[in-house]
Amino acid sequence: MDTPAVISLADNKDAQLDKLIDKFEKCYGSQPSFVVRVPGRVNLIGEHIDYCGYSVLPMALEQHILIAAKPTEDAIIKIVNADPKYPPFEGDINNLRITSDSGVYWHNYVLCGIQGISESMKAKRICGMHLTVYGSVLPNAGLSSSSALVCAAALVTSYANGLSLSKQDLASLCARSERYIGTEGGGMDQAIAFLARFGCAKHISFKPLQATDVKIPAGLAVLVAHSFAELNKAASDQFNQRVAECRLAAIILAKKSGLSNWREITVLADVQKQVGLSLSDMGVRCKEILSKDVYTKEEACEILELDSNLLEQYLPENTRSTELFKLRQRATHVFEEALRVSQFQEFCKIGGSGRELGHLMNLSHDSLRDLFECSHPQLDELVSCARKSGALGARLTGAGWGGCMVALALEEQADALMSSLKETYYRANSLGVKENDKFIFHSQPGGGAVILQ
Ligand code: NG1
Ligand code: MG
After folding, report:
1. One Pfam family for this entry, by name (predicted)?
2. Sign of CA dihedral 453, 90, 16, 144
3. ipTM score assigned to the predicted complex
């Protein structure tokens, strides 16, 4: 079974680990028994399609979450963040309940991971733990700091309780548990957190969860830059609105395509599988069937012959009072983006040019901006600065509405591109102080989650 590697803590010490262990000793008066390290990620292409059942293509970053841990005899969980901006938490570990009403506290992501493992152990009680947490993944930036935290907490809990779960099982369990927060995302972030391999991006497909190595052609650099427009996804309902629109589009397409089990089909990829059309033919069908620019809830109910209570059962809780849905635009993005992912993977396989890859990234951004409407004017500006400054392609990464851009550049031009962005975006927008390597950097594909002991 492929479980997360256990590597030597002594051989992998660095300044950050030392600081976290010092913090642990100061807080709890003893040494941690082990530390876990889980990476953030940047998604190269395949945005807002994982929860529609389609494959995505992310890579892990060097930036990560570290949790130092020690199991205890009692049933108390104590969590301290190395950054005092995030307040500590203490509670009964066998009595955690995180719901979408629990508030937007950082520690809820830790509790999601713990609760996920605890529920998988059915009736067994789990041990108490002392934890200290450190993160170098930018928060609310589309780099998956939230999932890295959930995955790190789940890994800590499973290891502390002597479980041995495969990387796949951990990833699926964490994808389910992060939904306790209320956002109904797909499984991309948790999958790459566990399944990443140093030096490779991954083509990740779902049901069953599989990750295939993708080698980015030689001579290309991946650059990440923060737009400084920030959205806290858990505190807003925009993400789930898109989930709702994609689900409604799937049910209507399934019904109008004559599928007898349409009531059970809520995922666009399942509609495609059952009707047996190619992605481009699905795009055509989608334009025919979902011809209106906007659907009211009433119209959706009429098409589906459901009353509004029944219709709402299909929707994430915080979107049940939504009255207007853009269905064709969202579904068209999903089918076209899914096609771009497979083209991107194919170009990488045959050693295609950076231009071709960059072009797909540009199309992805434009579609997210115009059809999916999840960009932000500042992100659009950053993307456009990157394109003008010699990037082969640039797009928003992660859920959007702010956060980071990912750009592809020729390796020998990456430094010039960074300097140009600092000039044309950061300084031009009085963000000069932010232009350090925390917010604008290039990265090699990093490795997946490990346990250090
Ligand atoms: P971010 O916003 O980067 O955490 C979210 C979802 C992903 C995926 C992307 C959009 C979670 C945990 N993550 O990522 O599954 O849907 O948006 O492609 O909900
Ligand atoms: Mg996230």
Report:
1. GHMP_kinases_C
2. positive
3. 0.98
